[in-house]
Amino acid sequence: MRRWGFLLRRLGFYAAAAAAAVVLNFLLPRLMPGDPSSAIVEELQRVSGQQVPPETLESIRAIFGDPDQNLGEQFVGYLGQLARFDLGVSVVNFPVPVSELVLQALPWTLLLVGSTTVLAFVLGTGLGVVAGWKAGSRLDSVLTPLTAFLSSVPYFWVALLALWVFGFVLGWFPLSGGYDANLAEGFNLPFLGSVLHYGALPAATIVFSAFGGWLLGMRNMTVTTVREDYVLLAQAKGLSRGRVILRYAARNAMLPSFTGFAMALGGVIGGALLTETVFSYPGIGYLLFESLNKRDYPMMQGVFLIVTLATLLANLLADSLYVVLDPRIREQG
Amino acid sequence: MSTQTAHDTRPAARAASGDVLHVTGLTVEYGTDGDPVRACTDVTFTLRRGEILGVAGESGSGKSTLITALTRLQRPPAATTAGSIVFHPRDGGPAVDLVTASPRTLRALRWTSLSIVLQSAMDALNPVMRLGAQFADVLRTHDRTLDRKAAWARAAELLTTVGISGDRVRSYPHELSGGMRQRAGIALALACGPELVVMDEPTTAVDVVMQRQILAQVLRLRRTLGFAVVFVTHDLSLLLELADRIAIMYAGRIVELGTAQELYDAPRHPYTRGLRDSFPPLRAPLWRLTGIPGTPPDLRRPPSGCPFHPRCPQRFAGCDTHLPVLGEAGGAHLVACRLDDGDAAATGTERTTDGGDR
Amino acid sequence: MRTSLLQGWKVRTGLGVIGFFVLLALAGPWLTASVPGLDPRANDLTAIGLPPSAEHWLGTTQFGQDVLAQTIEGARGSLFVGFLSAVIGTALAILVGLPAGYFGGRTDAWLNFLSNLFIVMPVLPLILIVAGYMQGTGLWVIALIIGFFGWSGGARTIRAQAMSVSNRDFVLAMRTLGEPHRRLLFHEVLPHLTGWIAAMFLQGVIGGVMAEAGLAFLGISDSGAISWGTMIQAAQQQSAVLRGMWWWFVPPGLCIALVATAATLVNFGVDELANPKLRTVRQRTRRPRGSEAR
């Protein structure tokens, strides 16, 4: 089966990419000027006002470089650390391990970025089909330049505007956070309601900034696909309009969107992380922002590793879906 | 494979009675409101039940425009601006003008009465749907009682009629050879038992051997199923074998219309003669091949008078001012040329100076 | 080709807007120095957080700085980073994409793996980490980092185009004749890619402006430099939203959006030129008979 071969090759590629991400994460602090690991230890001592315990010292050295070991030994030690999911301790939130903080923040980001990415894709692709099918119509001539503008607006700026208009001026939504801190966390209705209420504005701004890109891509693909002979033949067959659009035109036009997913995903995730910052949303992006501002290197490294691996996983999912959607699979570039 | 010639099948076609299509004064224009380009002008012909009508012409002669107009698959900026295409159903139902029919009426007619085979089956089949699904959706659209399983079984049956193994319904188009795809396209066109199949150069994308096989299959299926065909191609020699009657198009107009035999033995329009003499005959003694000098006219600025006159070896005074109309000139053999207008016929070539103006 | 490109309103509008901002960036220092009250760094303690007025057209910041002056100065910072990072990114994209497409085979396999790697990596967090280690960096370094990590998409395009040009008969023939690879690459193949490279460069500028804004927003920037990104960051840090000082963060974001939209418009125009199918037909006012096939 050729499609299994394709999937295996992609799997191989993503495994290599994940390995590269790990190596990068290992090398970065060691390539940087100065000695991050002693800087971190000093910082820890300053923050906690006591001597750093030996096991913490060891863990920091494994991640940020150990002057007493060569690179090979260090790398082995580093892999061992990762295998135990030990990403060091946070400087700012000493002595909470980074892995714990990351795991706390991850569900929030997955919920926000995951749902909005899918929503933006569905919305943009759907509207793109309509605009492309009626290319040259009034709808198309208004919608297309408008989305060109929307997709050019920086995410965090849209977030600021939304926060100002809907949070500050109109007061419809809370100004920061991911849930009402006065409520007990858990699966109870008031809490889940507050999660929705707090998440609505960040989610809306991400969808708002992201769907334009999908719309433009899908619109142009639909314009091209509509002229294909198989769409003409589908019309000649007397099929209903909906069937011609969905099963013949849109079904084929959406394939490049899936291959473009990898190209776009990095940007979407980056933008979403910035959005979290504007809303002080308790996700990975906000964590990254805080660690950057407070020079919390262990946290930066940990967040980067997790974000990279999550992105690779999302790409692998998109590729698997592509295999299902296109029977003519072939290696893309 | 059948090796009989097209001529042998003609009596069978003639036996069918009545006409299936009346095309009258069909005019199709492209383009902007300011200066539209006429790609088809005043096209008039009748298609008999079960007949194969060949339409031949160079590229840019309006053949493709005629196809999309006949099947009403044209898209802006193309638009039918005049004329009618009246379809007469086999069951004696009311005649329908395809030009003005509502989308609903049209959709009901599509494929059950009027189907199409496109030039390249590779492009005409949906690359992401199995062959069977592409048959099943049209079968079930036009017969609501058919269930999925029966539709797929019918698809397999249809494939076998064109010599493709029935288990190929599970294949995707890219898994078939070029010839197979083209035959699948023909089987698809016949799925709902149409009365009229429009074929747009269905054999240009395949090799000569496959071309012969496909044409033989078309003839055989036509004999058993009795559908009429409008077969459009640039290859006149192919039509001479296949078609019952042939229409020659030039610059968007039909310039000659007659039986294949008449056009082969005694072409009356200088353009038809040029076209005949530029292809090697398939089953006749060879003659010297000659091309037609010049190029087809630019339809944005059509020549005055007869559109062929700048290239015509037999033009005479007045050809550049008078537009000849497709007129009766002995039997059903029609020609639009002033050489054929009564006394001008015999001595056309000499009459370059003394004028044919009336 | 050039004349027909300039005929489209999209390309003309796009280039016009970009040209305006480039002029603004170039003339910025002269403008802010010669017009009184337009010094981006002057802190006027008598005018703190004022809304737009005749005196300060775009209002003032919490530090008493003129927003208009800052926006003009910010154009310089933002576009500087945009152009420098685009130069670096484009150069890298050519360096990786060109040999990959031209040589094919093993060279291609490795180079293509490298660019695919950078395509699937989330580049912004990567840039953040690197920039995070280089604390207190100037605009130069930020442009370098952005360019260094932002070449992969372009390399992919260059590779595909180089591959198609390299397989044309004239290149193959010259290769067979033993023409040196370097000459072929830079004198025969590269000139055919000019259009693609120009479009890529434009995208690179926009990507650079956006990335700089993102980085500055997260606090990674030269504290003394003024760019549209640092303006938004300062506004965010001073809680401009909570104080209702919209005039502080609206102008710089709007400028970014305008420049990026302009680039998108230019790319639209170029796309339509390269792919005639995308050109839309204006609908006829007179309803034609029998043309509602769609």
Automatic annotation (TrEMBL), chain A:
Record localization: Cell membrane; Membrane
Signal peptide residues on this chain, from the entry's feature table: none
Cross-referenced Pfam families: BPD_transp_1
Transmembrane segments: 12-28, 108-133, 154-175, 195-217, 253-279, 299-325
A GO-annotated cellular component: plasma membrane
Topological category with respect to the lipid bilayer: Multi-pass membrane protein
CDD domains given in the database record: TM_PBP2 (cd06261)
Keyword Transport carried by entry: yes
GO terms, biological process: transmembrane transport
PANTHER family per the UniProt record, alphabetical: OLIGOPEPTIDE TRANSPORT SYSTEM PERMEASE PROTEIN
Family indicated by similarity: Belongs to the binding-protein-dependent transport system permease family.
Protein name (Swiss-Prot/TrEMBL): Peptide/nickel transport system permease protein
UniProtKB/TrEMBL annotation, chain B:
Highest taxon in the source lineage: Bacteria
Domain ABC transporter: 21-276
SUPFAM superfamilies with a match to the protein in the record: P-loop containing nucleoside triphosphate hydrolases
GO biological process, one term: peptide transport
Swiss-Prot/TrEMBL keywords: ATP-binding, Nucleotide-binding, Transport
GO MF entry, a single one: ATP binding
ATP-binding keyword on record: yes
UniProt-listed InterPro entries: AAA+_ATPase, ABC_transporter-like_ATP-bd, ABC_transporter-like_CS, Oligopep_ABC_C, P-loop_NTPase
SMART domains cross-referenced by the UniProt entry: AAA (SM00382)
Keyword Nucleotide-binding tagged: yes
Sequence similarity: Belongs to the ABC transporter superfamily.
PANTHER family in the cross-refs: MALTOSE ABC TRANSPORTER, ATP-BINDING PROTEIN, OLIGOPEPTIDE/DIPEPTIDE ABC TRANSPORTER, ATPASE SUBUNIT
Name of the protein this chain belongs to: Peptide/nickel transport system ATP-binding protein
Species for this entry: Promicromonospora thailandica
From TrEMBL, chain C:
Highest taxon listed in the record's lineage: Bacteria
Pfam families: BPD_transp_1
Topology in the lipid bilayer: Multi-pass membrane protein
Recorded family membership: Belongs to the binding-protein-dependent transport system permease family.
Coiled-coil parts of chain: none
Name of the protein described by the UniProt record: Peptide/nickel transport system permease protein
Main location: membrane
SUPFAM superfamilies in the cross-refs: MetI-like (SSF161098)
Keywords: Cell membrane, Membrane, Transmembrane, Transmembrane helix, Transport
Record GO terms (molecular function): dipeptide transmembrane transporter activity
Transmembrane annotation, as ranges: 12-31, 79-98, 110-133, 139-158, 193-220, 246-270
Species annotation: Promicromonospora thailandica
GO cellular component, one term: plasma membrane
Compartment list: Cell membrane
Ranges for domain ABC transmembrane type-1: 75-267
